C-alpha cells in the first residue's frame, strides 16, 4: 500500500523531478547551432550559439545583438550588449528540444525550440552577410 501511494505521488508531480541543464549540458546542447524559439502564440526569436559561450540573438525581423552566457545557480544567464540587466533562464531538454523558462521580472513564461540549423544567424542591418 505504501509503495502504491508513493508511486501515485511521484507520478503526479513530474515537474519536481525536472533538473535544469547545467552550463556543460547547455553548451553541449547548443554550441554551433542556430536555434529558433517559439512562445505559445508565435515566433520569439533566433539565437546563434558560438564558441566561448558567446551568442548572437535577434527577435524576428530585428537587428542582431551580441552577448555572452554563464551559469548562475541553476540558471543560464545572458549578458547582451547595450542591456545592463542579465536575462536568466532555466533550460530543459523536452522530447529532444530545448525548453526555456524565463526567470527575470515578469518571469514564468516559456519558450520552446521550433527549429535548429548549423548556419549563421541571418541578421538585418549592419551584419548582413555575416
Structural class: alpha+beta
Shape: globular
Number of strands: 8
Name the poorly predicted regions: 1-16
Number of domains: 1
List descriptors.
130 residues, alpha+beta, Lipocalin
Describe it.
This protein has an eight-stranded antiparallel beta barrel. Helices cover 17% and strands 44% of the residues. The protein is globular. Strand 4 and strand 5 form a beta hairpin. By secondary structure, the protein is α+β, with helices and mostly antiparallel strands. It has a single domain (17-120), classed as Lipocalin, CATH 2.40.128.640.
In short:
Helix content is 17%, strand content 44%. It has 130 residues and is of the alpha+beta class. It has a single domain (17-120), classed as Lipocalin.
Per-chain topology:
Blueprint: H1 2-11, H2 14-17, H3 23-30, E1 34-39, E2 42-50, E3 54-59, E4 65-72, E5 75-80, E6 87-94, E7 97-102, E8 110-117
Antiparallel strand pairs: 1-2, 1-8, 2-3, 3-4, 4-5, 5-6, 6-7, 7-8
